Amino acid sequence: MPSMYSFSERRCSALLFVLLMAAAPAAFAQKPRQLTARQVVEKIQNQIGAPLDPNSVDTFKAGDPNTPVTGIVTTFMDTYDVLRQAVAAGANLIITHEPTFYNHLDKTDFLQSDPVYQQKLAYIHDHHLVVWRFHDQWHWRTPDGTIEGFVQAVGWQKYRRPYEQNAFTLPPTTVGRLAADLRDKLNSHSVRLVGDPLLRVTDVAFLPGSSGENQEIRQLERDDVQVLVAGESWEWETVSYVRDAVAEGRHKALILVGHEVSEEPGMEYCARWLRPIFPNLQVTFIPAGDPFQNLPQ
Amino acid sequence: MPSMYSFSERRCSALLFVLLMAAAPAAFAQKPRQLTARQVVEKIQNQIGAPLDPNSVDTFKAGDPNTPVTGIVTTFMDTYDVLRQAVAAGANLIITHEPTFYNHLDKTDFLQSDPVYQQKLAYIHDHHLVVWRFHDQWHWRTPDGTIEGFVQAVGWQKYRRPYEQNAFTLPPTTVGRLAADLRDKLNSHSVRLVGDPLLRVTDVAFLPGSSGENQEIRQLERDDVQVLVAGESWEWETVSYVRDAVAEGRHKALILVGHEVSEEPGMEYCARWLRPIFPNLQVTFIPAGDPFQNLPQ
Lengths: 297, 297
Description:
The structure is a homodimer.
Chain A: H1 7-28, H2 37-48, E1 60-62, E2 72-75, H3 80-88, E3 93-96, H4 115-126, E4 130-133, H5 136-140, H6 145-154, E5 167-174, H7 175-186, E6 192-194, E7 200-207, H8 213-221, E8 227-230, H9 235-247, E9 253-256, H10 259-274, E10 283-285
Parallel strand pairs in A: 2-3, 2-10, 3-4, 7-8, 8-9
Antiparallel strand pairs in A: 1-4, 5-7, 6-9
Helix pairs in contact in A: 6-10, 8-9
């Protein structure tokens, strides 16, 4: 019996069938699964490779870790202003190096009735943000991500001593010129100098942020360290140590560039490190910026 | 029988006798007993009146407390340079507000092989100096000696609020002008400002030195405090709190004048307080001075 369909109709059907078969894999292929904040963090921690201390502060600080991530922000500190910028950028996972709630352990018991804390927490919840702190493992990484970011920001790669991540032999300069150079490169509003600005130096060590007196003094005790560049330190601790060293006639100085200023470049470097790990996610670095203002002259 | 002595000789003897009798009380009177360092400190602590916490840091830090005191020096911090000036002034009891050995508890175990510490300790021993720290009780005193010294140094007595030692209603000014004014009055090389320099303010609270985040935030939470003036505070603590408060649109600011700068006037006041207590001892105030240098422009 002849087919009830014409040759044209059968050819058209065949063409449609071929097109359908070609499109089927794409139609049935799964969309890349949207990672949750928890999954993003797990992937980061696997990538670092170093074991995580159970007492680490690298934990979620606010928000629901099961939230699908729309975008990642890295920053030195998730200030209220950084959170607003993250929302404007369409990102909802904020990776902060420093605390969210004004103390190293992000304890909030003493802030329960504080309006500044309440408003910040409400903003995070209202915008379904998730905050994760990336501090310990970013430092424990080899190389330390914060030191690496700083070195790139100030252009000290070529001065680095072999096998040492944070010790440098600079072209001869003075402590004052070195401090001014760092102030300008890092745009710091709060560089503080202990020692003689006219002291000629080449041997510099760097410790980011607030590493603590023990580490700072250990660096300064080295015969091959003349200047320690650090973020911030108590006046009655390393500052007074250097003061006495100088009074004793030792060739030492201390430059405190500011905590944020010393570690923010490390979070810009963090964003660059994250992008190939999460090719399907927008990774944005948002600087918290120097917290201090310049004074009128 | 006529006397064997002439009238002149008898009159001379009588005169000598009278002179001797007049001088005897002075000759036989006891010289004021030279107080030891321990006795000076006991007298100070009795004068304060407040009970001493057994965990107080107000203890002898170096030298022999049984040393007779030749003179008293008060200072914010017994830096190496202050010790040398004390020796030049003939004083051997140094009353310091801050630590001698670079940490709050003046622990020295981690410094045993440190040359800066060794040289300082040797200097104290070689010159038979005694160092006593006057920190806790000077704060617990009513009024707090450090706050009192600061208020007098900046001339805020007339702005003090009734029944409050550290809260002031200033003539309207801006945060920037207030910070510049404090910088100039206190000769600070390291004033740091968080907030809008153009913010108009009158309501100011002051906390000397590094009072800690809990106290600092408690002051800033007050509706009648717009600006907190303090010595120093970690960037991730009160500094970031104020930063968020400002971003949330609150009428707040923070001025960090420097730790030494905020408390040194209190030790000048301490010297004035001590002088009538020890009328037989020279009491000299020796400023430690701002530890920071100005940067070249």
